[in-house]
Design a protein that fits this description.
Length: 398
């Protein structure tokens, strides 16, 4: 790909989530290598941007229309298509691709129209799109246009393929992509053959601005940092810490992060209620996200990820890269077990198993030599998954 070409990164929002951080880091590196780069939002406008990672010289635009004005025809289509899809969803059957597309286009008509106009005016622009609804929106908008489109869904695609815009919709419309990037081989296996055959597995990059790994004496904190959401399963972490605290009573738990919607806030409230019920509220620090989070946690005893599912957890990778002993659930889609060699550079535990999570935490807290070995081995990941090396794989693909 010639460096005088433009790269357009298309995402729903920019609010500091893991996929947005990866997209921003990659775009920064493309820009550093001389490419003309732009970040485009499909489900929010610039007033909603939390810009923690994107270089300020990269422009941000939006095709989102907050106050959508749809014609009566599209309003009728939206209602009609929803009614067509509902029986299949109720019976847990795959929604036919044509019905799903009608539903999608009627829902996002204005954004698709705006995106198509932008791509039509920039025929040489290469497009990278992460996440729904941006991925199908981009593929539909780019129909019959010369733009090369590379897509990458994140998180757990096995959950995605069961939804309205799932397997049948993906099989028919994702084949328009020029290439597909998967986070793990497990993620690749979830997609139809006509999509996975275009696929390349590229792990998430490690932020090159992280502090150097720390291998000294550690403070007695069990720590997690994440975007607070139900998938992180803070309840199992609180349960595990409550049992852990009975033996290691001088340790505290740090939960660093912020919820973004009502369900996230409800999950956080449930975690606090459980802590109160288990009489450990006084030993837990609920802290807001900080841009200095890595400096705040680098001396802590261990990092724990209790997620039910993840794509490739950036927090897990960053904790390893700064030398923290790491415990992570062996959750779909295999991001943790792709990089963690159990008991060598981290510990893997069963999803939802608070007892096993507790045992892993005790093993690290109770054996300094073992914890130090995990720390040293974990830090090697910052070189294996450096931003420079990962971006190079993307640029070769583009």
């Amino acid at each position: 790909m010639s460096k005088n070409k433009k790269i357009l990164m298309v995402m729903p929002v920019m609010k500091g989530g893991g996929a947005e951080r990866v997209a921003s880091l990659l775009l920064n590196e493309f820009s550093r290598n001389g490419y003309n780069c732009e970040f485009l939002l499909t489900s929010s406008d610039k007033n909603d941007v939390i810009n923690r990672d994107l270089n300020p010289d990269i422009s941000i635009t939006s095709v989102y229309e907050r106050n959508k004005k749809k014609s009566l025809l599209f309003k009728a289509s939206e209602i009609f298509s929803s009614l067509l899809c509902k029986p299949f969803e109720i019976l847990k059957l795959g929604v036919p691709a044509c019905f799903a597309k009608l539903s999608f286009v009627s829902q996002y008509h204005n954004e698709i129209k705006n995106l198509k106009e932008k791509l039509s005016s920039e025929p040489d622009t290469v497009v990278i799109s992460f996440l729904q609804p941006s991925v199908p929106m981009t593929l539909i908008a780019a129909k019959n246009l010369p733009n090369r489109v590379v897509v990458s869904e994140r998180a757990d695609p096995y959950r995605l393929v069961k939804k309205r815009y799932g397997y049948k919709f993906i099989k028919k419309y994702y084949q328009r992509a020029g290439a597909v990037v998967f986070q793990t081989n497990d993620a690749k296996a979830a997609y139809p053959d006509n999509v996975s055959s275009k696929g390349t597995v590229i792990f998430n990059p490690i932020n090159d601005k992280l502090p150097e790994p720390y291998h000294g004496e550690r403070e007695k904190y069990v720590t997690t940092f994440c975007r607070i959401s139900r998938q992180k399963n803070l309840l199992v972490l609180v349960q595990a810490f409550a049992e852990f605290h009975k033996e290691f009573s001088d340790y505290r738990l740090k939960i660093i992060g912020e919820p973004q919607n009502d369900d996230d806030r409800a999950h956080l409230a449930e975690a606090k209620e459980l802590a109160e019920k288990l009489l450990i509220t006084d030993f837990i620090d609920f802290m807001p996200f900080s841009s200095e989070v890595h400096n705040l946690i680098i001396h802590d005893a261990l990092y724990v990820n209790s997620s039910d599912y993840e794509g490739m957890s950036n927090a897990m990778l960053e904790a390893m890269a700064i030398g923290m002993p790491v415990v992570c659930t062996d959750c779909p889609i295999g991001g943790a077990n792709s990089v963690i060699e159990n008991n060598q550079n981290g510990i893997l535990t069963e999803v939802g198993n608070a007892e096993e999570l507790c045992r892993a935490m005790k093993k690290i807290a109770g054996d300094k030599a073992f914890a130090d070995n995990l720390s040293r081995n974990a830090a090697q990941i910052r070189y294996n998954l450096s931003l420079e090396n990962t971006a190079k794989k993307w640029m070769e693909l583009l």
